[in-house]
Specification:
Number of helices: 9
Radius of gyration: 18 Å
CATH superfamily: Vaccinia Virus protein VP39
Largest sheet: 7 strands, mixed
Strand order of the largest sheet: 3-2-1-4-5-7-6
Number of domains: 1
Helix content: 40-55%
Structural class: alpha/beta
CATH architecture: 3-Layer(aba) Sandwich
Number of strands: 7
CATH topology: Rossmann fold
Shape: globular
Strand content: 15-25%
Distance between the termini: 38 Å
């Protein structure tokens, strides 16, 4: 699937006006199941955090999580870092147009980015499967967190027997982690406690197939049919909302994704 081509098309659209980007974020929040899981964990973490909080969005991409965090609490200051200079510039321009002062984006490589004992929370969503030197990044996360603070990760679960480089458009260097593998790596670099939860159980897998995979197949095969996608979502959207709800509310014994929490 040509994810890169679709991402470039979306980028061109959402940069035309700030409200297009906000609408894009809201669609992602509803359709992308990992957003549901990440928000659930942020709400749980929020009950234990102080009002004035510094958060690192590590691998901020389009900036949807930084936008969510800065909108959720005006006392939360968010630093979004990404290796893609163009995405960083787009996000800074967007925040500037909205006059949001509690979020800023910088170009940085997570393999070398460290701010000693600075952050109350580090969030990294579907980033680690793209970085060969993952333990170096985990070390940098550990060093950058304050004592007692939390790292929150989302990453695919390893699918045994499949080519880890199959999706070349997304430059993945591994197809995910096993729960034990990522727990061991985080503890090796110093994290005292690690909690790994499964996401994308049976209902989540079906939701992903209906809401993401089928539209991408249509986009890659017949781009002109993509104009009919809104009609498709009119029928599929309510079903996916119910499926996502069940995936978030249940504790899964297995799944295609991992939600990882680690404490310093």
């Amino acid at each position: 699937m040509q994810y890169a081509e679709l991402k470039n098309s979306l980028k061109n659209i959402i940069n035309k006006h700030p409200y297009f980007r906000i609408l894009f974020y809201k669609v992602l929040d509803l359709l992308i199941l990992r957003s549901w899981h990440i928000k659930r964990e942020i709400i749980r973490w929020e009950n234990k955090c102080e009002c004035k909080t510094l958060i690192l969005d590590a691998g901020s991409g389009f900036g949807q999580y930084a936008y969510y965090l800065t909108s959720r609490n005006k006392f939360w200051n968010v630093l979004g870092v990404d290796i893609n200079e163009e995405l960083v510039s787009d996000c800074n321009n967007f925040f500037l147009k909205l006059k949001k002062t509690n979020g800023i984006f910088k170009t940085a490589d997570l393999r070398s980015f460290v701010k000693e004992n600075t952050f109350d929370l580090i969030l990294s969503v579907d980033v680690m499967e793209h970085i060969v030197e993952d333990e170096q990044v985990f070390t940098n996360f550990y060093r950058s967190l304050k004592q007692g603070s939390m790292l929150l990760l989302s990453t695919p679960k390893e699918k045994l027997g499949k080519d880890k480089l199959k999706n070349s458009d997304d430059a993945m260097v591994r197809n995910g982690y096993t729960p034990k593998e990522i727990e061991d790596k985080l503890k090796r670099v110093g994290f005292s406690r690690v909690n790994v939860l499964y996401a994308y159980g049976p209902s989540g897998k079906l939701s992903w197939y209906l809401s993401i995979k089928i539209p991408l197949i249509i986009f890659n095969a017949y781009k002109w049919l993509f104009l009919l996608i809104p009609i498709y979502y009119l029928f599929v959207f309510p079903v996916c909302m119910v499926l996502n709800y069940f995936d978030v509310m249940r504790l899964h014994r297995s799944g295609d994704g991992l939600i990882v929490k680690a404490w310093k």
